[in-house]
UniProtKB/TrEMBL annotation:
It comes from Mantoniella antarctica. The active site is at Y99, K170. GO terms for molecular function: malate dehydrogenase (decarboxylating) (NADP+) activity; metal ion binding. Gene3D superfamilies: 1.20.1370.30, Malic enzyme, N-terminal domain. This is Malic enzyme N-terminal domain-containing protein. GO terms for biological process: malate metabolic process. The keyword Metal-binding applies. Pfam families: malic. Its cofactor is Mg(2+); Mn(2+). It comes from the Eukaryota. The keyword GTP-binding does not apply. Coiled coil: none annotated. SMART domains: malic.
Amino acid sequence: AAGGGGLGLGMGAGFASLHDPRVFNGLATADRTARGLDGLLPAAVALPDLEVLRAAAALDAAATPMQKYRQLVSLQNTDEATFYSLLQSRTAELLPILYTPNVGDACLQFGTLSPRPPGLYVSLEDRGGVAALVANWPAVDVRVAVLTDGERILGLGDQGVNGMGISAGKSMVYAACGVKPGWLLPIQVDTGTNNPTLLADPLYLGLRRARERGAAYDDLLDELVAAIQARYGPKTIIHWEDFAPRNAFRNLTRFQEKGALTYNDDIQGTAAVTVAGILGSLRIVGGSGGGGASGNLM
């Protein structure tokens, strides 16, 4: 209709491809005609490496870590291939921007981030329909689901739904280390927040209620893990990230007893790195760690 501004049936597929980060690869996007992209991109055709250089130039023009974070998240939301190529080519430089320490600021500013890093949001209000939410995630072969409830984000405490920055950031760490991005599913479990600043913030994105401490919390996690396993298989790793101690140990034990492949970075990851450091030190000094003058390092 005149003035309607809508797309006719069967039209707009190219425009959709232009905004699908799994398909769009900037000027390196292949099969332009088949994807309906003719006329929607400049005439120049670039190799993927040139698109990485283009993205790097835009990144280097950003002055602060948060500006760089926003630039990178924008790239992730528009062109995944270039984003992950850039991340793997400059890993040591970019991980502190996408994860610790800068991700803390990203969580604090999450309500004003646009775009935000992609992920799945599951709240108490979704109970009974969580499987439908998991079905909406576009990846068909998830191997690792990274979950947080946002209660203990780094040293910032309860950040509620803003904790998605942590789940998304840890997924980026996995990808930087060579895990296929399509295997990763960042999830924010929204069970409320006890942070009065967030509850009073009109830009806060999550449920405006106190944290659930009762059976509804466990029921939501049970339903979520079951939905993940039903779609992606029982061997999908459930990675718990930045849960407060009251739930971190309990969730880990509870789902281990259910037979899930489950892992808590803050509990098991920290312990594993500590033991690895001790064993590495023992190899350097020639000790055994079994006691005696050569073994007592602590």
